[in-house]
Write a structure and sequence with these properties.
The structure is a homodimer of 334-residue chains. The first copy, chain A, has 334 residues and is α/β, with parallel strands linked by helices. Chain A is built from eleven helices and eleven strands. Chain A has a six-stranded mixed sheet with strand order 3-2-1-4-11-10, sandwiched between helices. A five-stranded mixed sheet of chain A has the order 5-6-9-7-8, sandwiched between helices. In chain A, helix 3 packs across helix 5. The first copy, chain A, starts with a strand and ends with a helix. In chain A, 57% of the residues are buried.
């Protein structure tokens, strides 16, 4: 039985969608036990609307909530009875294998490091969302946890990301690339130039060299390594360009009677195609390299994404990802 | 009369589209005189296909061509008779006001600094392409010329970009923002944190704070300031996500008979809408802060983009952008 703590209070649609997602996960995956962390009376009232195996969802009371705009370090330090701190403590104590939250990114990143703690040898735990591509999905690592990273951090990101893609996403021998401004080895800023030869030396990853941002949506690599500032820009621009273009396509279709009729006819097929470019179906972003697992789902997650994030945690636990990361770090030291 | 040198030999569709673009510019803009730089016999043979005022296009012979894959510093140093070096020398000597090329980006950036030279006081000349947004167009500055920039460089980028948008693109009081990973002032990497307060102090620009990458396609600012590595990632990801989504939309429309019929009906309206998201209609990317003007157009430029780049140079010259940049730098020193 994989035990997963879920933050019932964080996210734009909390608590209803968080609770609904937990119920959906329990109803679809037999091997999972869930701790719903949040204000007891609120969570219970939400739960009463659903039908599920009552033995597999447990409510854990947490009277406080960390708001997204709160300074994260302070919030984690002071709000000891918040859903994020209580949920992460369940992981720390080994009572839960993972913690899923759609709440404050900052608080989740800080809490992951301070409460759950890093695996010995991991220098910085990266946030690694899956991003959609023409060919499926790629792991973008790092994406917000550590700005101003050093080359050794990026090498660890490459290793951890490769393990994740191979064993959770089942991509055989995943192609690892570093984000760069040209395909040639001599291109790049100081960080990339220093990191490139180190990645080339790694025998436990399939390093294919530099990737230009243009090739990312075309599925040019499975693990996209970069420092967090660049990763954050990539993730958010992906969303921004995607949503802008889709809204422009919709608007374009509404400009004449002829195009409106056409729009009705293409809608079903188009919806299906664009669904494959929707990140939410792949679950949340794991914070890798921790003693346990913390997954950040989108702030605007609905039940389906919450369910997918929970199911992602099951694969993570069952595949022994953290044990594999520890092993890889030991090989690195040799 | 504004005099513009055009590289007839650089670009995927050179010489035919470069020559055609020059002819279109002369035929549509009365105040322009063009030097077509390249292999004389090749250029003349292309020109013979067109009708135009022969007094306004002059062929300047250059026997060599710099290929895109050549190391730029070496190429600029050794190929003295290449179209890029000859064209830039025309600007240096004051015989031309501007130089337009679709050739090797690296050689254009190096040549701009080494041959044309910087305006006194400009620390680094940024490459500043226009990118399409929902609301029109924004200037992305810097985008490939200088990696590992310092805060003082970014402040100059903001000033020069603001002048360009106000006087060439006619955006009144352009909103200047710095690319960041959150909207709050305390967010960011070391470079952004150091630059932010310096931008706040600038009295000659309308600084609106940080911009997250998500807001760029929505038109969140007119001048988007960032260092070149991040700018390059933004520019190329824009292209990548855009082309991926458009090809997915097209593929989605071809999946059933119903959607194929719908596609025929929406096509004209959609084409019109997506045209506004096509960067090529706005011309090329100026390399700002030089003693003259160098404009890099896309490698895959066709005649229309070449023409637009030439017309952009006319506005640059007529509006006295370089004089305004010099003035701004003098005010800065006070």
């Amino acid at each position: 039985m994989v035990k997963i703590a879920v933050d019932a209070m964080g996210g734009d649609y909390a608590p209803s969608e968080m609770v609904a997602g937990a119920v959906e996960a329990v109803n679809s995956a037999p091997g999972v036990h869930i701790f719903l962390v949040g204000k007891e009376e609120v969570v219970n009232s939400q739960l009463s609307r659903h039908t599920y195996d009552k033995g597999r969802i447990e409510v854990v009371n947490a009277k406080e909530v960390i708001a997204t705009e709160e300074p994260p370090v302070n919030a984690i330090r002071k709000k000891k009875d918040s859903s994020i701190v209580v949920g992460m403590n369940l992981v720390k104590k080994g009572q839960a294998d993972a913690f899923v939250s759609a709440g404050s990114s900052g608080a989740i990143l800080v809490g992951g490091q301070v409460i759950v703690g890093r695996i010995k040898g991991v220098e910085r735990p990266p946030l690694a969302p899956l991003i959609p591509t023409e060919k499926g999905v790629s792991l973008l690592i790092d994406c917000g946890a550590n700005v101003d990273a050093r080359p050794s951090h990026l090498v660890q990101f490459a290793r951890m990301g490769s393990i994740y893609m191979e064993h959770v996403m089942k991509v055989k021998n995943p192609r690892v690339a570093i984000v760069n401004i040209g395909a040639e080895e001599e291109k790049g800023n100081a960080l990339v130039k220093e990191t490139f030869p180190l990645l080339k030396e790694c025998k436990d990853i399939h390093f294919i060299g530099s990737i230009e941002a243009r090739e990312i949506p075309h599925g040019g690599a499975d693990v996209i390594v970069c420092e967090a500032f660049v990763g954050n820009v990539i993730l958010k621009l992906y969303e921004g360009v995607g949503s802008t273009l889709i809204s422009m396509v919709k608007r374009g279709m509404m400009t004449s009677l002829q195009s409106k009729i056409g729009a009705l006819l293409v809608k079903p097929a188009l919806k299906e195609t664009l669904k494959s470019f929707d990140a939410s179906q792949y679950g949340g972003a794991p914070l890798l390299g921790l003693n346990g697992l913390v997954v950040k789902t989108h702030g605007n997650s609905k039940a389906n994404e919450v369910k997918n994030s929970i199911i992602q945690c099951i694969a993570f636990k069952e595949q022994g990802i953290n044990e594999k990361i520890k092993e890889s770090l030991m090989n690195q030291e040799k």
